[in-house]
Design brief:
By secondary structure, the chain is mainly alpha-helical. The protein is 81% helix and 0% strand.
Amino acid sequence: MQFLAKLSSQLTRFTAAIIIFAAVIAMIEPATFAWVKGDVQIWVLGIIMLGMGITLGKRDYVVLAQRPLDIFIGALAQYTIMPLLAVGIAKALGLSDGLTLGLVLVGTCPGGVSSNIMSFLAKGDVAFSVGMTTVSTVLAPVVTPLWMTVLVGQTVEMDGWAMFEFMLLVTLLPVVVGSGANILLQGRRWFDDVRAAMPGVAVLAFACIVGGVAAVHGHRFMDSAAVMLAAIAAHNILGYVLGYYAGAAVGMDTAKKRTLAIEVGVQNAGLATGLSAKFFPASAESAVATAVACVWHSVSGTVLGNLFAWWSKRKGQGG
C-alpha cells in the first residue's frame, strides 16, 4: 500500500496534466470515456466527495470551532464574489444562454477539493483552506440551487428543489460518510492506507468527469472556444484577485490572504459539470464550459500556488 500512497501523491502533483490528457484522449477517441455519463457520472462525483470526506478528522472540526470568524468571512466572500462575477462577466462579454449557465454553475459551486493542496503549495494556511472547503461544501446543497434560481432561473428552466436533493445525496452524504469513517477508523493501518490513496483516486475521477464531457461534446469546443476561454479565465483570475484583497480588507495575514485567494478562485468545477449534465442535459455549451473550467482551475490554481511559493522564497520568507 505504500506504493499506492506514493502513486497517489504523484497523481495529485500532476493533476492538471492528467485532466488535460484525459480531455485530449476523449476528443481523439470518444469511446474511451463515453461510459462516463448518467448514473456512472453521479457515482464518480460521489467518489470525489467521499475522498474529500475521508481527509476530514477531529482536528479539522476543532479548527472550525476555533476560527468561526475566518471561516464565515471566507464562505461569505466565496459565495458572493464568484456568483456575481459570473453574471457580470457573462453580461460584459455578451455570452450565450448556454455559456452563461455554465459560468454561473461554476460560480455558485463550493470550493474545489484540490484547493487544499494548492494552498499548501502557496505556503498558505492549510487548516483555513480545509475549513473553508468543508463549510462551502456543507452549504452548497442550499446555496447553489438558491443562487441558480435567482441568477438564471428566469432564463433557464430548472428545478431548484431537485437540485437541492441531488446535492445532498452527491456532496453532503459522501462527505459525512467519509469523515465519519475517518474519525472512527483512524489509526487502523488498512484505513490509513486507503486514506493516503484517496487523493489520487479523486484526481482520476476528475479526469473521468472531464473526459466524459469531452467525449460527448468535445467537437463543440471550437464553436465558441475563444469567448469561452476568455470568460472562464477572467472569472477565475478575478476570483483570485478579489479573494486576496477581501482578506486584506479584514486584516488577514499573508498566509490567510493567499488561502482566501485560492479558495475563492478555485471552484469545484467537476461538481458543476455533473450538475450541468444532470439538470441541463440540452445545453451542450454549459457542459463544455464547466468541463473546460475544471481543466483551467486545476492548471491556474497549481500555477498560482507555485508563484506564491516562489515569491516567498525570493523574499526570504519561511512560509
